[in-house]
Each structure stands twice: as structure tokens, then as C-alpha cells.
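haha ok so turns out i had the wrong file open the whole time. this is the CORRECT one, sorry everyone. sequence first:
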Amino acid sequence: MLFAIERYTICASARYLRRCFTNSVDTSANEFPRNFAQQSNESLTSIRPEAQKSLRIAFLGAPNTGKSTLVNQLVKRSVCPVFCKVHTTQTKARGIYCEGDTQLVFMDTPGMVTTKECKKFKLAGSFKTDSRTSLNIADIIGIVQDAENIYTRHKINSNLLELLTEDIRSRIPIILVINKMDKLKKKDILLDFVHTLTKSKKSPDFCDVFMISALTRDGINDLRTYLLDSAKPRAWEYEGHVYSDSTCEDIIRQTVRAKLLDILPNEVPYRLQMELEHFDPAPDDSINTLVSITRPTNCIARLLTRGSNNRVGQIAVMAERELRHAFRTSVRLKLSVLSPT
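then structure:
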């Protein structure tokens, strides 16, 4: 069963960005506004603390199940990097959504990996620790399954099941989120593997099941409404205008990294280092920024800059589009390719 949703349009809000900059950012200095995504402005939170409600949601799943896309759609901003290659999300990130008196805090985590995979691909230690940390503070756990993957859709990732101890299962509600429904052509297959997932002795007792497409937004409104209704009476963790706990620097750098993964082949983008060199909010609220890409070899430099299809230009255009959606303003991004020191 596929939930229907309304199509929504996110309008640009230059005033929002202006408030963030004018409160604590010195645009005349060559300093990055590292806390851009979480500026403090008490006037934006008009709801009394005693009337507020909040909910912390941890989304877990195998690599490339669409957790980051799901968080972006629920928050209505591109706050998490998204790509089809695995291991795009390397550390946990929080997306924050406020509606009325309720604040939802979404915790996007790296895909489940084994210790062997961490060593093989030289992954950060966060791949093993961030998911467990998120579980310890979550009010609801969302297990995200990829309906398109015929090899894994009928079973919960074994690494994830190890995290779901009896203590966690007994005290934290767990929901099942079947993603990529738009890719599933035969709906009778859906009923079969959902029945297998929910009835398996290894699976947790799901308190609800949602069937969505994060890419097309089908079912997103229903899931968000369910979470809003599940919120607990307590003061908000973040000010009302905050949409991410990531810094501006992190959002820009991770967005560029995701687009490098989108354009470059195989393991090449994993070997590149990115640094935010310049960040300048203009008087009209637009953003000018420069990101340097350090390449390890001349061969990779040629891959990035030469030929009729200039990959650096393509990456800049794609990243600008995502950043405009994240910051709700015009973004002009320049990329420079540097030699290693």
C-alpha cells in the first residue's frame, strides 16, 4: 500500500538568512560563520517552554537505503549529503523540523558496516559508534529498508539487529520504513517481503509500518504527521529557526563531496580532500563561497579539469542547486583544484 501525499513547494526566504547573519556573523572579517545553521535568536521562539513538545528520531539501515534523502524530505531542506554510492554519510547529522508547538529532531546515521568493512575501506570510527550513540537518546527508531534491493529487502541488516538489544526493543518504539516504493513495479512482491520482515523472529516488534518514496515524496507527509503526533511534552533542544546541527562549513563541504561522488568513478572521490576557503554573504543575502579540492595525483587533476565535459563545472552547478535548497537563497560556488603540499 502506497501512501498518497500532497506536492509541496518550498519558497525562498531571504529574511530568514538575513536574521542568521546579522545576529552573530561579522561579514567584514575573513572568518567563516561556522554556527550559521544554529544561530540563536530568542524572538523566533514564541512558544512557551511549558507548551512545547519534541521527539528524537534515529533512522538506521544498511548503506544506501535512502536515510539521508528521507531526512532531507522530512526537514524540507537539503541538510544531509545524498548520493547513490555507499558510505556518503560518514558521521551522524541532525536535521530539525518545527511545526506549531512541536520540534522533530532527526538523526541521520552512517549505514551499518562490519569491523572488517571498516578496516578494508579505511572508514572512520564513527561508522561503528554513531548509530549506537543515536539509539541511546532516541524516542523512536526508524528502520529504513530498500524495497528495490532484491537481495536485502526481505531481511533486517544483521549489524543493525546486533544494536537492537532486548533493552532497546523493550523501551523504545520501533517503526519500519519501506523506502524506494517508486522503484517497485509488482506490488504483490511488496506484501510478500513486508510479511517476511514483520513476522521474522529476528525482527523487532514494529509498532507501525510506512511505505514511502523519499525521492518522489510519496508517504512523507503521513510519516511526518505520525511523528508530530508522537511527540512528548518537553522543552525544545534547538531554537525555532534551526534546521541542522551541522555548521555552514560542514554543509557546504559535504555537499561538494557528495557531488564529487556523483561525477567521479570508483574510489577516486574518496581520495580527495575538501576545504572551505572563502565564505561571503552578500548584501542581497546571496552567498559567495570557494571550496578547494586537493588531488593526490596529476592523473586525477586531469580527470577533474580537462576535456569538453569539465567535471569541476558540473560539480559546482549540482552543488549550488543543493545549497540553494539548504540555505534558501542564491549561492555562487567556485571550486579550485590544488596540488598536494
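The longest strand covers residues 53-61.
again sry for the mixup
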